[in-house]
Write a structure and sequence with these properties.
Elements lengths: L7 H15 L2 H18 L1 H4 L7 H17 L7 H14 L7 H14 L6 H21 L3
The structure holds protoporphyrin IX containing FE.
Length: 143
């Protein structure tokens, strides 16, 4: 699609996704660390599922997820297989589908505040939509 054919929401979404694609690893990890700090302070009930885990390694995994979302169809990753693996890891820790809404709402907030170009509420709307398919895929794989 030529950029002249794109609607304004498409252009805003592209702008946001391009920012993630261009992010350096240290910047991406900083966003991911901010997310976990925010999650643990805002949602102490969720923090217990992460007990004993290393935040640096969690941040690296979250940064991979964000890059995967930003890569879209071009990631070359088998998303269904990856979603199944993540759902298993979650289940082992006692994470249930009912926990996802809170987790993603904090993630969307942090992502919206860590970008520079769009009003936070616009960025929040875009990120909510972008994270929906992967979230639904993981949730559907809980048994
Ligand atoms: C869209 C939502 C989510 C995504 C994309 C996501 C993604 C991931 C990924 C990629 C991993 C690494 C799995 C691995 O090591 O192979 C992971 C691990 C983990 N996630 Fe999630 N997650 C989500 C929601 C949640 C929620 C709601 C919770 C609970 C509050 C949670 C808690 C955990 C924990 C505790 C681990 C560490 C598992 C372990 O290493 O033992 N996640 N998540």
């Amino acid at each position: 699609m030529q950029s002249s054919d794109m609607t304004r929401p498409d252009l805003l979404r592209d702008d946001l996704i391009r920012q993630v694609r261009r992010m350096r690893k240290d910047e991406g990890l900083a966003v991911a660390r901010t997310f976990y700090a925010e999650l643990f302070s805002r949602c102490p009930d969720l923090a217990k599922y992460f007990a004993g885990l290393d935040v640096e390694s969690l941040a690296a995994k979250l940064w991979n997820v964000l890059r995967l979302v930003a890569a879209g169809d071009q990631s070359g990753v088998d998303l269904r297989a990856a979603a199944t693996r993540v759902a298993r890891r979650h289940e082992i820790r006692g994470v249930a589908p009912s926990h996802y809404a809170l987790f993603t709402s904090v993630l969307v907030d942090v992502l919206a505040h860590c970008q520079r170009t769009l009003p936070p509420e616009v960025a929040r709307g875009i990120w909510s939509k972008e994270l929906e398919p992967i979230t639904a895929m993981i949730m559907a794989r809980h048994v």
